[in-house]
Amino acid sequence: MFRCGIAYPRCKWIIPLLLLFAIIFDLIAICAQSGWVEDEDAKSHYASMWKQCRGLKDNWQCQSLMDYSWAQAVAALMIIGLIILIIAFILATVAMCNVNVGLMVGTAAFLIVVAIIQIIALIIYPVKFNELIFEGNYYYTWAYGFGWGATIISIGCAILFCCLPRYEDELRGDVKPKYLYSSE
After folding, report:
1. pLDDT tens digit string along 5-38?
2. Of 68, 69, 112, 140, which residue is the least packed, with the fewest Cβ within 10 Å?
3. pTM (2 decimals)?
4. Transmembrane ranges (predicted)?
């Protein structure tokens, strides 16, 4: 006999795992030395959250972006978002161990704050960077994409944590699984 259903007690660890991926994505975006912005050919200009470099071949001149207040704001917002995301991960893990509805709602609130903070940072960066640079076409590349990836995962997990209190009994394992399909 074959049965297909959702086993909530086994699936409840997926959300903290997603938050762990969001933390890793944020770390990649914050720590990347290049990969936020590149010029069209990726040969004469690139930038990270921290600095921008211009040059040709092996002759590069780098300038810190931390001289600009907008870059300091972006760095601060991304780091604050990462710290709150780590706190949300710890809360999520504890909430799933104990199936605590209050912690689930608290985790959702933290994740909404993370999403708002990081969206603001990820919008400020291209707007102000484009004001700083006037020539040519530029592409926002892999590290900037990791920042957006972490933000999107945070939004998704916040929505899931808002919905989870409805399934408290299923998460505890107090309810029999409801099978979607059964072949008898």
Report:
1. 455 666 678 888 999 999 999 999 999 988 888 8
2. 69
3. 0.84
4. 12-36, 73-94, 101-125, 145-164
